[in-house]
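Morning - N,N,N-trimethyl-histidine inputs below, output right after.
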Amino acid sequence: MIQYTTVDNERALLREELLSGLRLPQKSLPSKYFYDEIGSTLFEEICGLREYYPTRTEIGILRDNITEIARHIGRDALLIEYGSGASVKIRLLLDHLERIAAYVPIDISGEHLLAAADELGREYPRLRIFPVPADYTQDFELPEIEVEHTRSVVFFPGSTIGNFTPAEARNFLGHVADVAGRDGGLLIGVDLKKDVTVLHSAYNDRRGVTADFNMNMLVRLNREFDADFDLDTFRHSAVWNAHHGRIEMHLISLREQTVHVDGERLHFRRGESILTEYSYKYGLEQFAAVAAPYFRVEKVWTDDRRWFSVQYLRCVSRARAPRA
Ligand code: AVJ
C-alpha cells in the first residue's frame, strides 16, 4: 500500500521536528534543513572554495580510479544516488560505466532535483532517469523501478554519512542495505581524520560562504515559520570536537534574547548556541566497523594525503524485517 502524505502534513511534521530540536538543552536544528533552493546553491559555492577540500579531493579520487570503480559496479546496474544535489559526480560514473540500467537520484530539495534531472536528461538522452524527491533521513519507500538490472548500487558521495552519529550511520546503512538488496553495492565517500587546522579552515572559510550557509537556517525559519531571528545577533561558528571526532557547526547568540518561532517563545542566553551540523571524520577501520553488520568493505581508494576516501562496499545481509 502507498500512503500519500499531504504537503500540510509534511509541514506539520517538519514544524515538530524543528521545534523539538529548539526546545532541547543544547538547541539544535536538523542538517537537512540547510538545503532549500538558496542553501543548495550556497553549498555548491562551498564545494568550489579553496579551503573546502572534500569535493575536489573526492572528484580527484573518482577520476583517478574510475576504471576500477566501474569494474566493481559492473554492467547494467541500477544506480541510486542519495542526496544527488547538482549531480556533478554522477557524470563521471555515467561517462565510464559501460551500460547503466537506470539512474535514480534522490534529494530533499525537490525543485533542485528536478532541474538537475532535466539537465542530465538533455546531456544523456538515452539514460533512464527516475528522480525521487524524498527525505532519506526518514523512512521512505523507494518506488518500484521497472527496469531490468543486474544489481542495485547506491552512490552516497560527499561524506554526507558524516552528518550522522556513528550509531545513526549504522542504522542508516541498514536501510541502504535494504534498498541495495542481494548482491547490492554501496559506493560511498567518507572523509578521514586529519590535521585540525585543515578542518578548521574548511568550515570557517575566509569569504564567509559557510557562515551564510549556516545562517540560512535562520533566514528560512523567519520566512517559513514566521520566526523573528535578528540575523545581526547570531554568528557562525565551526569547531572541532576531538572527543567525538567531529566538526560541529553552531549558530551562537551574541546576546540574551527571546525569539519566536511559529508562535513559540525561545529563550537564548548570551553565548548560547544552536547546533546545526555534525561532520564526523573517520579512520578507515572505524568506518568498516560501523558498516560491518550490513556491508563488507571491498575496496578503499584515497588521495595521496589520505584526506578523503571513496569506498566500494558489498552488501552482506538484509538483516531487517521488511517494513510493513
Ligand atoms: C555535505 C554534509 C558533507 O559536512 O562537509 C559543508 C556539509 N557543512 N560545509 C560537510 C557542509 C559545512 C558537508 N556535507
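Note: The two ends are 9 Å apart (CA to CA).

O.
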